[in-house]
Specification:
single chain; alpha/beta; three-stranded antiparallel β-sheet; globular
Length: 366
Amino acid sequence: MNKQHSFLKGKKIQPQPINYNTKITDLIENTFSAYNAARLREAALLYNEKMLANDVTVGMSLTGALTPAGIGISCIIPLMEAGFIDWIISTGANLYHDTHFGLGLALHQGTPFVDDQVLREDEIVRIYDIFFDYKVLLDTDAFFREIIQANEFQKSMGSAEFHYLAGKYVAAREEKLGIKNQSLLAAAYRLNVPIYTSSPGDSSIGMNIAAMALSGNKLQIDPNIDVNETAAIVLAAKRAGGKTAVFIVGGGSPKNFMLQTEPQIQEVLGIDEKGHDYFLQLTDARPDTGGLSGATPSEAVSWGKVDPQMLPDTVVCYSDSTISLPLIASYVMAKHTKRPLKKLFASRESMVNLLKDEYEALRANR
């Protein structure tokens, strides 16, 4: 039979040979035809064609040692400036190591094939193939301990407020040093992009806050504030008639904290909602081990994290994010015009009030 089968309606695999004039956009669209290259192409197209519509609120989660590798400077800050990332959940470690750059401290290309005992003796710290002086840690610790002595830090606050205030000081240090756009924290402060961390005590930033508490410092990071603010961001986007997208780089706790916004709305607060509309993940984690890092979008449907009607608009690319994220960032920067900045940090109070009003109305009717 010569009947055209529905499974054979995909684009024919017949790429153009790569030449001296091949662009990143051509490479992704025409050469990435199969396997995880195809998933990367699908991820780039999903981000560009659907997630970056003006009515979509895009949240990004970050795990892995990305900022020490320069990913904050090369990819995340430009995406934020273009309006392509509206809010972030990150490990504290990524934000701590990001601060090195804003303070003018140097990290260097190295090698994983080295005797770590020799590095220890020479006071060199290694993150796989990244080297830096041990003094970089000490100087960054001293910076955080100094700034959190300011009066504005002497209270309980959410991690977004803490990172905004810290970003203000990092931005001031950048200006003093005559550098700019080296720090994700500083850029987020300038752009009004809220940054949360799902485990405030699990980083050198949290360790320094804890150390200062021993001396009477009043700063405390309240996770309750973060849980409600992040859920409020999602609900506000939906109630305004828009959609929400999650761009998950890696997995871990930030992935869950990003996705649990929907169960917080539906399961815990009892507010009617269906789940996130778009799901894009870059990961090297397998799903069959049962870990959250490798959990698929279809599994997330069972928790209410992803709208089941939107499963066709979900992509998981199994790839090292230090390879795939720069490619995707380069693609969307070339293909998509800038979006208006949503400046969600300044809207936190009104969004939480919306969440609270719906929750209290439901409780009153029970």
